[in-house]
User: Fold these one by one.
Assistant:
Number 1:
Amino acid sequence: MNQQDDRVRAQALQSGFREVFGQDPDGVWAAPGRVNLIGEHTDYNEGFVLPFALPQSTYVAARRRGDGQVRVHSLFTEETAEFALEGLRPGSVDGWAAYVAGMCWGLREADVAVVGVDLLIDSTVPHGAGLSSSAALECSVGLAVVELSGTVLEPLALARIAQLVENDFVGMPCGLMDQMISMLGEAGHAVLFDTRSLTPTLVPLAPTGDAEVLVIDTRAPHRLVDGEYAERRRQCEEAADTLGVTSLRELSDTETEVAELLAPLTDETLRHRARHVITENRRVSEAVDLLRDGDLAGVGERMRGSHLSLRDDYEVTVPEIDLAFDVVSGAGVFGARITGGGFGGCVIALAPLGVHQQVEEAVTAAFAEVGFSAPAVFRAPPADGARRVL
Ligand code: GLA
């Protein structure tokens, strides 16, 4: 990310804070959204993911206060919420402020002596596009509150608290990928994360500078996201149970043919779900090796395989996403796929330099032809994770 950008945002937030709260903030913190290069719906199956952090971030200006109250104003909704730290529990705050209240609750549950704070929040992460605006909000608020409470937490510990907040306070049964990458992202790199051992490994993304990742935000409205996500998760658990393993990851690590592994599963839907998870984990491992070898066409093929598996076996795509994938795949890129949980959101493409415009024109024309809202196409250089900016 661009430090210049960070500074400009932080200064704007600082003066905004003065206007809203009448005093200077103690500091400004930021945490990014993400795209996932490959490894989808594997993180709650103890599998592998390969995301990277976006330059787009959520910024939080914060000031400590002495009375155990939290006041938070959001510049993206122009709303203020206020709550007492004492008495916070799941269900006590809802809407966007639940992520903020949830982080205070989660940190207290983790024995951090959380102090009251005034918070002003702004974000450049597109909202509702499957780019983890909620993880960016959780991690930026978490970082600010931890520091103002005079504590230090390992980035991964904070990510796990944020995941717990999603699961238990907000009610979204997500895995750890989004919060992990928002905390641990590094410019120029994707992060291979083994969600069983919780080990992150940096993988340089196109170190020779001959490729870039493009994001195609389809702007398709998210549909049924949370219910469908929870159902997929439950189906994976049931499949693992039937196959006698604690997680589907265990089956990805073997050399055995997938069809043979799946033979005991008689339920057709569960077979499809499990096949996606097992093959996706294998694709992530292959993609990492291919990236290290500089074989971008090979990485692109794995991305394509991932998309088809998410479309046909995991069934999390929607017409806008599949159209974007088809069009972009034919526009001179190495490979493309849906990124994130699905049911709307974005397609990403690994592309040689110089095809950005071609991709944008092709997808814009195709969307106009069938009457879909105009998509947005932008470059996604891998950026840094959560940080203090002022
Ligand atoms: C959402 C969740 C993640 C992950 C992805 C799918 O982004 O928050 O934990 O499961 O979906 O890969």
Note: The radius of gyration is 21 Å.
Number 2:
Amino acid sequence: MKNSLVRKEYSPLVSDGNRRDTLKIAIQKSGRLYEDSVKLLKDCGIDLKNGLNRLKTEAENFPMEIYFLRDDDIPQYVEDAVAHIGIVGENIVFEKNKQVDIVEKLGFSKCRLSVAVGRNEKYEETSFLNNKRIATTYPLLVKQFLEKNKVQAEIHEISGSVEIAPGIGLSDAIVDLVSSGSTLFMNGLKEVETILESQAILIKNRELDKTRQQLLEKFLFRIRAVKKAKNNKYILLNAPNEKLKEIISLLPGMKSPTVLPLAEPGWSSVHSVLNENDFWDIIEKLKEAGAQGILVVPIEKMIV
Ligand code: PRT
Ligand code: ZN
């Protein structure tokens, strides 16, 4: 009796056939988030089994099950704990307004939710929208925006091709996602207000058990190492010894730069890590200070 209880407790399978100890993640089935979501898993060292089942698959080397869903459905599935975590745009998370926690911004699928009106309209401020008709697929976010700005307008919720609404006389303005702006331009519209800046984020169910929380932390540790690596570059350069002090003072590094003597007397090789944002600035200063043979290489993972 005791034995059978013990076996049940540690069995990786529960009665419904689901693995007891896996973290279930929901990602978009196809669309703009799909490739970057799969790439993030891969960069985190999580390889997916290639099955014919396009609803779900498992990871080969991490206790994770991957569910492929429409992005709009992901917040609900995470709220209901059908998936423990999910990758989805902030725009969808805020519009769906489900009971989930935001864990991490992921830095891809960046866009903004904006108000656009006809190119020739004289838009000066939000009061322009008073008594106008606004077409959108984001009724909740538009409602909140109008309330915040004390504007009375009519919201027309439509399911797609929002950008054509003004042209066919369905609305006077639209609220839609914009990235390059070319869709608005091609439809004779101009962007006049930004309601939300959005990117892909990781969300989680609010009541994860201890095992799932630990798995999430493991996954998050990897995500952060990947993100950090993307924002940094490894730099190698040669410096005349008399300029070493000045050159080192320009390099932030993780702790302090590595300095190795070169075979040629009077010269050293300096290795360090540079943040992408300061990158060009520092490179110029390094050259001015006498650095030569500067090599810059991408970093795959960065654990600090
Ligand atoms: O089938 P499913 O419901 O899963 O997918 P979907 O068709 O609803 O979404 P999808 O794949 O188009 O977008 C998924 C997510 O990508 C969005 O929720 C955003 O978080 C993010 N994203 C980033 C974008 C854009 N950029 C974007 N430009 N989503 C949509 N667009 C559309 C926009 O609606 C407009 O039609 O692209 C057009 C504007 O683009 P520009 O470059 O012309 O300005
Ligand atoms: Zn969608």
Note: Confidence is low (pLDDT under 50) at residues 1-17.
